[in-house]
Amino acid sequence: MECHVRPARPDEAAAVAELASATFPLACPADMGEDDIRDYSEGHLTESHFAAHLADPDADVLVCDGDGLVGYALVFHGEGARPSPEFGVTAAPASFLSKCYVRPDAHGSGVAKRLLDAAAATAAARGSTGLWLNVNYENFRAMRFYEKHGWRHTGYTEFKVGQRVHRDPVYEFRLHGADLRGEDSGT
Ligand SMILES: CC(C)(COP(=O)(O)OP(=O)(O)OC[C@H]1O[C@@H](n2cnc3c(N)ncnc32)[C@H](O)[C@@H]1OP(=O)(O)O)[C@@H](O)C(=O)NCCC(=O)NCCS
């Protein structure tokens, strides 16, 4: 798929929010209620949320721009991004990969890996030695994706979607020795 990974522009908050709301249900378990998904989207994935992330010096919003935006990643750095000790993350300091979402027609295309590499490059640029994330316990595709790219399961955290609290697996990626690419030209 032809696409280019780059930082989102300040005027793209609405476009990234649309992408985020469209793809968030893909990461949810099949029995997740529409109300809970809507609550989460309204509480975390609106234009104003992404406008704030785009203005946050401790955040990077990356997009894959092809025929429109096909995927995005959201990474947090700095003290607010540090994992709790009970998550078992060994990298320190570690950045937090909060989101890595790709439209379904680009799954299996390599777009997600390019976003992952660009997210890792932002962490390295901020002096982090690794990244961590949490993933839904039924999101087997995502877990396989992270594992095949060198991420390791370290522990668990709680993640609230609407009225439901999930026990999400936590994964980490150590940057030492990683072959990182930032923005790319795509193929
Ligand atoms: C997670 C995501 C970014 C991964 O990107 P992708 O392009 O789909 O990933 P890939 O196709 O490279 O890898 C997925 C792997 O999972 C495997 N897989 C697919 N369905 C699976 C399942 N039900 N159980 C186990 N493995 C599965 C695929 O076969 C592939 O492994 P392989 O390359 O060894 O064959 C993408 O699927 C996505 O955006 N999903 C929706 C949003 C999401 O869940 N984001 C992550 C939130 S933490």
UniProtKB/TrEMBL annotation:
UniProtKB keywords: Acyltransferase, Ribonucleoprotein, Ribosomal protein, Transferase
GO CC annotation: ribosome
SUPFAM superfamilies: Acyl-CoA N-acyltransferases (Nat)
Location of the N-acetyltransferase domain: 3-176
PROSITE patterns recorded: GNAT
Pfam family, any one: Acetyltransf_1
Domain of life: Bacteria
Name assigned to this protein: Ribosomal protein S18 acetylase RimI
Origin species: Tessaracoccus oleiagri
